[in-house]
Amino acid sequence: MTTADAPTRRKRGPIVIAFLTLAMIVAFWTLLVDNRQFQIMGTYLALILGAMMFAAWALVFSGWPVLRRFVPAAVLGALLVGTLSLVEVRGVTGDWIPVWNWRFAGGAAGDIERSGEGAGSSLGRFPAFLGPQGNSRIDDVQLAADWDAEPPVKIWQRDIGAGWAGFAIEGDIAYTLEQREDREVVSAYRLSDGEELWAQGEEAYFSNPIAGPGPRTTPALAESALFALGASGDLWALDKSDGSVLWHRNVVEETKAPIPEHGKSSSPLLVDGLVVVSAGGPEGNSLVAYRQEDGEIAWSSGSDKSSYSSPVRALLGGMDQIVTLNDASISGHGTEDGTLLWQQDYPGSWPNVAPPLVLDRDRVLFSSGYGIGSRVLEIGAPNSSSGTQAATKLWESPRMKAKFTNLVYYDGFVYGLDDGVFVCLDPETGERVWKKGRYGHGNILLVGKHLLVQTEKGDMVLLEATPEGHNELGKFTALRGKAWNPLAFAAPYLLVRNDEEAALWKLPLAAS
Questions:
Q1: Are strands 443-447 and 137-138 parallel, antiparallel or unpaired?
Q2: First CA to last CA across the chain, in angstroms?
């Protein structure tokens, strides 16, 4: 080949680079079929490598005049600097897509916005994470299914501090946690009009580059007190009426537990006068129960690191127990003294977030994202001599990968978001019944026979909970912005929030 062919070879450089970049993208999307986040990150990596290869080609192999060779690198640098100057990156979505705002854009107008309609009395209560039963179900209310004839009504919308905490509701008061500058606070709002009643907290700040700042849990309400866990491990017992401190402990310091990468995200569980917390400490301090009355430790058990999943109470194999999905294990503990009843290893290379889902008196389902999927265990009767229980794996399936949203069990089927797409699953076999509706990594709640699905972008969708197929009955925009916070419903009011705003909606109820 002669030197005359050199310009031709140089011209082929961008074509080869484009082909290699495309080949990398195709490889990520075909070889990593069960992990959408890796597919997207692989696409970013391929595009960055492609841009770097083109800049290197221009500098070394293009044969262009000297000044012209620096143009691609200069353009890439200018785009990077300009983007960072104009755009503020506010974390990522559940699929690792950057969420950004213009730096010069103003915040929400006004502190609180009210509609002409006020909120009346509430028919229900929502006292803790995932509701009164701790299973994302409200069974004693039916929603009206025609939102065109009876549309949901917004009662109020207001600014709120950062964080991914949920609301707990009792009567006309709603409680949550939020980050206010350098203070982490528990706050109380009047449900009827959104006015703040009190806020209690201290100087504390937790943030993560992916998820941002603020607490991540939902308060739990007892008769006269509430209990809340902050992102750095501060456990508060507060008087519900005025927020005065009854007692305060730091579960990270006293159990020597590490703070997970995304902060303490496991909501406290109230059990028979105790506050049970997934602390994640070594040497018997994985699961810790504090006395509600004075904050003293009643018992502690296990030595597994905590995950981001919240413990649930269940009757399995005839034993009243607390079921936990830990960092790399799943286990059941007796409610009276924390005795370890059963345990199995569980994948822990990526975050475990979704809470365990109790199916019946013998079976419990665990689910994780990042390509892991779901597992169902059958818990046997206690051994007559040891008191421990056998945990038998019935099946594993990649067809339901709940990254960090809860699942719902209703009328013999499991419903939830499989890596952002809605799925109905048969819990007998782990087989998918149907899959449709890309809602992102949002939240779900079953009210009667209908599913409320908040998309990751903030829309609220009404679905029929049926194995017959995906039937979307209605939709409205509840909030704008990344919706990772769990839902709260005290009929007929739906309370939603994100890391900037909260809003109360009145949903139409079916005739009794």
A1: parallel
A2: 86
3-state secondary structure of 295: coil
* pLDDT tens digits, 56-86: 877 777 778 877 777 777 887 787 777 767 7
Q: What is the pTM of this model?
A: 0.87
Q: Give yes or no for a contact between 6 and 63, defined as CB atoms under 8 angstroms apart.
A: yes
Distance from C-alpha of 436 to C-alpha of 422, rounded to nearest angstrom: 5
Run of H or E residues at 7: helix 6-31
Task: Indicate the SS3 state at residue 137.
Answer: strand
What is the 3-state composition of the chain as percent helix, strand, coil, each rounded to the nearest 5?
Answer: 15, 40, 45
Mean pLDDT of 405-412: 96
Residue 252: which of 204, 211, 193 has the closest Cα?
204
CB atoms within 10 A of CB 93: 18
Cα 157 to Cα 49: distance, rounded to the nearest angstrom: 44
Tell me the three state secondary structure of residue 491: coil
Q: Quote the distance between the C-alpha of residue 170 and its chain's center.
A: 23
| Backbone dihedral angles phi then psi of residue 179, each to the nearest 5 degrees | -100, 120
Helix (H) or strand (E) holding 472: strand 472-477
- Percent of the chain, pLDDT > 90? 73
Tell me how far apart the alpha carbons of residues 477 and 459 are, in angstroms, rounded to a whole number: 4
Q: What is the mean pLDDT of residues 330-342?
A: 97
- 381: which residues sit within 8 A by CB, 6+ positions away? 317, 318, 389
Closest CA to 353 of 393, 402, 302: 402
User: Tokens at residue 146, please?
Assistant: 């025609």
Do residues 274 and 293 touch, judged by C-beta distance below 8 A?
A: no
**In sequence order, what are the beta bridge partners of 130?**
none
